[in-house]
Amino acid sequence: MIEAMRALKHPDANEFVLERVFYALSDPVRLDIVRRLAEVDAASCGELDGGRPKSTVSHHFRVLRESGLVHTDCAGTTHMNTLRRADLDKRFPGLMGAILNQPVPDVKRSRGAK
Amino acid sequence: MIEAMRALKHPDANEFVLERVFYALSDPVRLDIVRRLAEVDAASCGELDGGRPKSTVSHHFRVLRESGLVHTDCAGTTHMNTLRRADLDKRFPGLMGAILNQPVPDVKRSRGAK
């Protein structure tokens, strides 16, 4: 029962809205999370938060979930996140490929590497 | 001199920021303007405003200009807008094509046709 209450809501692929996806990607922290998730099968919030405060990061993950970009599984105390690439490709053909193909500006790469 | 003062500022293509483009596209009114501009050489604000109040539309055009999506020329009292497709394609290869390829939801088509 507690597990059921903690399950997070995710929109179905046919409920995805293009403008909401763009809004989710309009923040550098969220775009960075999406780029990182595109390179792995799944990652915990801790692996993606870049040391930012939990309250800030929780908000970003909620926006990412509600847009359809990210799926979060609650596994005990750890939240595991995945990019919903198959759903996104089905709903918005070619879009995620084009977005993820954009080079990451050097300043962000070096900042991320710190 | 008056003409020079009225000239609007536009970022160079190398100053475009991906997140700002996504923010500009995160509003249905602005996404609609971009889609309409993609189908014509140029259009006045009046042809694109959908009868919305001037104050609202001015804000949307400013966001579109500042992101790099739209160029506005002041020709007398008329502002003519163009999509900066060549600059966008140079800065973000493949991105605008993928965005403009997304089908427009039926509800928006019928609303726009009214």
Automatic annotation (TrEMBL), chains A, B:
Superkingdom of the source species: Bacteria
Keywords, comma-separated and alphabetical: DNA-binding, Transcription, Transcription regulation
A Pfam cross-reference name: HTH_20
TM annotation in the entry: none
SMART domains for the chain: HTH_ARSR
Gene3D superfamilies cross-referenced by the UniProt entry: Winged helix-like DNA-binding domain superfamily/Winged helix DNA-binding domain (1.10.10.10)
HTH arsR-type domain segment(s): 20-97
GO terms for MF: DNA binding; DNA-binding transcription factor activity
Protein name: ArsR family transcriptional regulator
Organism: Pseudorhodoferax soli
